[in-house]
Specification:
The longest helix is centred in the first third of the chain and has 26 residues. The strands form 2 sheets. Strands 3-2-1-4-5-12-9-6-7-8 form a 10-stranded mixed sheet, with helices on both faces. Helices cover 39% and strands 23% of the residues. By secondary structure, the chain is of the alpha/beta class. It is built from 9 helices and 12 strands. Helix 4 links the parallel strand 4 and strand 5.
């Protein structure tokens, strides 16, 4: 198993350069095609008068601005891909839903660490939306990080569908890693069961050629994210693999505690699967 196509959202904003640098690096690592997608849509509500009529001249200007933004995004994307295989696609749609549809062509999405309450949903793809809508693993980078070594990895284990999906989706990274720790945070009553679970997962990964070992930490559930980062720091891991937990309620994403912590305050790269 490997990643053959990697999708990245390209924006005209210079801050997107870090994401593009990371995506290009990951694509080179796996000899994959990098699919750059520029996606933005006109804010028609912002152009409406009190009677709900759209002023034609403002609509024209807004379309022209979107076209300029997409052209600038393409130029920024092409300046980062180098000689690697790549494709470009420009769409006029809300970003997160559009990317979630287009990712049927990809194995992995590289996302920015945008605020969960993004104020520009017609220009910015909220990573929480991508993770929960796309059905693809999503790699989220901490601010300023562009170099993912993934030589040592922590797999955040929880006996759930999402965690199993994440471990499987991360196999291309795990098989290349020098050391993988399968770690579960549990209460004292669940210690023995957690030790058995992590041991079984480590053995399963070993059957795929992964250098994996189990690790269990007794702590309160609220400290799970903290303990995972402590372990990652201890072994020098720059990547955590985690299931993503959440659902949509009244047009708002409701996320599990660890998922939300990793998205709001990522200390290292996180590969999410839902």
């Amino acid at each position: 198993m490997t990643y053959t196509t990697i999708l990245v959202h390209a924006e005209s904003n210079p801050q997107a350069a870090e994401r593009l640098t990371l995506a290009a690096q990951v694509a080179r690592k796996f000899d994959a095609t990098l699919l750059g997608v520029g996606v933005e849509v006109v804010d028609w509500m912002g152009l409406s008068d009190p009677y709900g009529m759209v002023a034609a001249e403002w609509a024209t200007l807004a379309r022209e601005q979107v076209d300029k933004d997409l052209a600038a995004a393409e130029a920024l994307f092409r300046s980062h891909v180098g000689a690697g295989r790549h494709e470009w696609l420009a769409l006029s749609d809300p970003p997160a839903p559009a990317l979630s549809r287009i990712c049927r062509r990809a194995d992995l999405i590289v996302a920015g660490c945008a605020p969960l309450d993004a104020t520009a949903p017609l220009r910015i793809a909220d990573p929480a939306e991508l993770i929960l809508m796309s059905g693809r693993p999503v790699l989220v980078a901490p601010p300023g990080a562009v170099d993912l070594r993934a030589e040592r990895v922590v797999v955040a284990w929880k006996d759930s569908r999402e965690a199993r999906r994440a471990a499987a989706d991360a196999l291309p990274f795990l098989k290349r890693a020098e050391e993988v720790v399968v770690m579960e945070v549990c209460d004292s009553d669940s210690l023995y069961a957690a030790e058995q679970r992590t041991l079984e997962v480590a053995r399963h990964l070993q059957s795929h050629g992964v250098t994996a070992r189990p690790r269990v930490k007794v702590a309160e559930a609220a400290r799970a994210g903290i303990e995972l980062n402590i372990e990652a720091e201890a072994i020098g891991a720059d990547l955590i693999v985690s299931g993503a937990y959440g659902h949509s309620r009244l047009q708002e994403w409701v996320l599990g505690g660890v998922t939300r912590d990793f998205l709001r305050r990522p200390e290292r790269f996180v590969l999410f699967s839902h």
